[in-house]
Predict the 3D structure of the following.
Amino acid sequence: MSDPRLSEPHVLDQPWRLWASIAVVGIVLGGILLGVVIIPVVQGRGAGLDAYTAICRALGILPGSPARPQPSDRTPPTPVSQVAWTPDVLQILARANPERGRAKVLEVCVACHGEQGVSVAPEFPHLNGQSGAAIYKQLHDYRTGSRTHPQMTDLAKALDEPVIADVAAYYAGQPKRNPNPVTLAESPPAIVRLVELGGPNRNIPPCAACHRPGSGGPIETPILAEQGRSYIVSQLQLYASGERRNDVYARMRIIAAQLTPSEIEGLAGYYAAGFR
Amino acid sequence: MRNVERLCLAHFWVAFAAFALASVLGTWQMWVRSPLGANVGTPSLYFMSVTAHGVAMAYVLTTFFIMGFGYFVAVTALARPLPGKPWAWAAFWLAVAGVVMAVVPILRGQASVLFTFYPPLTASVWFYIGLVLVVAASWVWCVLMLVAMTAWKRDNPGRPVPLAMFATVANAVMWLWTTVGVAVELVFQVIPAALGLIQTIDAGLARTLFSWTLHAIVYFWLIPAYIAFYTLVPRAAGGRLYSDTMGRLTFILFLVYSLPVGMHHLMMDPEHGNGTKFIQMLLTAFVSVPTLLTIFTITASLEIAGRLRGGRGVFGWIAALPWERPMVLATGLGFVMLGFGGFGGLINMGYGMNAMVHNTSWVTAHFHLIFGGSVVIMYFAIAYEIWPRLTGREYVSLAPLRLQLWLWFIGMMVMTLPWHWLGLQGQWRRVANFNYADPLIAGWGPWVIVSFGGGLVLLASALLFVRNLFVLHRSPAPAIARPLYALAVHPPQRVPAALNGFGLWNVLVLVLMLLAYGYPIAQFLIEPSPAAIVHRMQ
């Protein structure tokens, strides 16, 4: 080619097509050879893996890293709760029928928790507008023995899983009242700070990080608003002493154990605020 | 200028208004994370602010700027009217409507999901629909860019497409490929979840699809800076472009290698095998090639300019460059930031080193330095360069422009270098506040304060930038006509079709994407994911 400007277009274009394709595809094939074959096989040898297993692991077909074998743990796990939020459980919750739930509520729950979830006494939690997943988990935990209560344990054992979901859906759908800003404003600043910012130097996360509606905490977190004062006090004390232990990862036991009695009182007051 | 001034100015002003507001939010975030602002605001407010800052900077500033600049290039580089101008206006208003739809839920606290689409975080559906509208508007822009280039080629058979337009179309083509990943994620996973139509979402698949978009989008933002390097800077410096072919190769390499590399954001994710991560890491290494080509070519072009201006010796040409011109100054400062940011990026890319900095402030510092630093400083320089052409007025003095660029550079360095250091100390990113009472964390405090100082300088620079542009609209001096685009040392007479269009490269991108993302995505359809990565949606 003496002068490329005089050449026919296709004379110039052919080598471009050829060499660009060879370079681009060659690089990626080289990468595949290195990343999927050579490195896994060589590193896998040191970890006692045969070549086939090492290649399958590198591709992601078999679990594990090719660099070292995964330690196996024979100790069976002992979960604090039997509830796992698998797609199946979420389906059960999604298919719950509040009408059936209402029938069961009128039959069983109404005596303490009220027809609309407004409890008859401050030691029983209000359930109106509570998160359905939270009610489901607690009933399920009573049923499996992860949480115990003189009355609730036997009542929950008599309900089967779909009915639990129905009851949860019914109470979740009941209207709730918003906290009264006037009474909320009467909370001491230290308590408001604990709710909004937590106590970082004691490793206490803000309550609102999980317990405010829509805050994005674990799905089973109950919404705390207009809740009975003595119910909250008793639950925080049970967590602090370790008597109640159905909180996953001991989240609430760790937090409650750090709280002083006056803070427990203050938080209970905060979350009772605005209720009739 | 063929009557697109209003169109360009409309795009640029939306971009820069979002930029100015987001700068204020960014500075506030730096403050509340520092020991000085401890206990100010709440975490929800912080994440709302981060979301607004990220959306404004990463989606509004960039998309509107790139669209406006693309229209400008199409009429100036091709020297013909913009085809389909009504469509361009329609796309503009569609994008504005999308921004409003996205911003309202953010301000109402219903979309504090940051600016990444990582389930199970889910926002109000209006947030997603708004951003989809912005993307749809950018697709209209892509089509208009392709139409403009095709029509020019039809009327000028055999002639090489001007480099500025070739690069703009490369960006448009890349953007069409890029948005496929996030579009699939939004349409099939996130929006149905936000509407409550599905109860679970496979976070592994969602993250994989987002990674498809996540890295190439950064190159979408970056290419205007590179267009300025190749086509505006050599002229502004008083020289010529060292090689036109090098420029074409650079933009082609960006198109080819910015896409099959996104999995380097998922190095610590469990849903992919090490082999696929290795392949994408290797391909990521090749993204550094066009940047290295650019550093070489632009330095050579500046050397030509320096020597033409009488510079002598090995380094004498550097001193001879016209540093008083904003475009040249911004390039010099941008290169310094690109150097630091680029080496930081190589560390993010390395599988082993990534483990050390993953999800730490290092990453935040990296993208602020390379995008907020070297790319945005070139956005400033581009705006300064073309504003007189859009308004017909000239700057009375260049001093405030230079001051603004210097402030941006100093602020960005002071903010991001300590931030990198904090990342190495293990400071995690995306948290609202730090417990400086903890002895392990207390030592971070002084560096966070230094970093906040950099943030204040950046805010001053951002406001000065808007002021500089605003003042020009009322400047008494009429604009001086002067050439805009640089000539190459050897202007191309005829280039192979491979360097004048994108047919071949689209085929190669398809091959690379199939090899890099084929199995990683197909595995989710072949075998159901373990329950651990299937997240429930509320």
In short: The mean pLDDT of chain B is 94. The radius of gyration of chain B is 23 Å.
